Amino acid sequence: MAIKTATALLLAGWVLSSALADDLAPLWARAQQGDAHAQVRMGILCRDGKGTAHDYAQALEWFAKAAKTGDAAALDNLGWMNEHGLGTGVDFLAAARYYRASADKGHGQGIYNFARMADVTSPWLELLKRKPFSDLSGNNINHPNNFGHRVYAEVICQLFPLATETRKNGAKASK
């Protein structure tokens, strides 16, 4: 079995030492059988060039297979690949969707990456075209104005419409 798997890995373009082939053979076999965790590991190896040259297209395939099972780490990795244009064009919207799907499953890195996608700079710069900074931020000494904080909060809340909807529904239910 190990020789057959190692041969398949070599035919797939993997440059392997015998020790690496022994380590990867069971992982590759599990990934081929549909094990999402193994598919994510194979995607990471392809993306990072461990055991083979960087193969972003193959990494995308492994991540996509695992994502079809709902694997949160796979969704997060697909977001990363789309955000950075690895194996695909840069697509921030797709990245945000993948990060969101990962975050919705409670995946810590997915939550972090999704929150990173918040653009609080653009609304703030638009406001500064119309109002002086002191009008937005208070007296700049010890009294922050809630307006600036509200802008940040609104941008971040737009990232989490399901959380906002859940909060609204919960408030209605408790009345």
Brief synopsis:
This protein has eleven helices and no strands. It has 175 residues and is mainly alpha-helical.
CATH superfamily grouping of the largest domain: Tetratricopeptide repeat domain
**How does the major sheet shape up?**
none
Structural class given helices, strands, pairing? mainly alpha
Looking at the chains present, what oligomeric state does this protein adopt? single chain
The CATH architecture of the largest domain comes to Alpha Horseshoe
List the uncertain runs. 13-19, 171-175
**Helix and strand element order:** HHHHHHHHHHH
What is the number of strand segments?
0
CATH topology of the largest domain: Serine Threonine Protein Phosphatase 5, Tetratricopeptide repeat
Q: Which whole number gives the mean pLDDT?
A: 77
Distance between the termini: 63 Å
Please bin the fraction of helical residues.
Answer: over 70%
Determine Rg (CA atoms, Å).
23 Å
CATH class of the largest domain: Mainly Alpha
Count up the domains: 2
Shape: elongated
Question: Treating each run of at least 4 consecutive H or I residues as one helix, how many helices?
Answer: 11
Strand content: under 5%
Explain the layout of strands and helices.
Elements (H helix, E strand, L loop, with lengths): L1 H10 L6 H15 L3 H13 L7 H12 L4 H13 L7 H13 L3 H9 L4 H10 L2 H5 L8 H14 L1 H14 L1
Describe this structure as you would to a colleague:
This protein has eleven helices and no strands. It is elongated. By secondary structure, the protein is an all-alpha fold. α4 (56-67) runs antiparallel to α5 (72-84) and α6 runs antiparallel to α7 (108-116). The chain folds into two domains: 2-91, Serine Threonine Protein Phosphatase 5, Tetratricopeptide repeat (Alpha Horseshoe); 121-174, no CATH class. Residues 13-19 and 171-175 have low confidence and may be disordered.
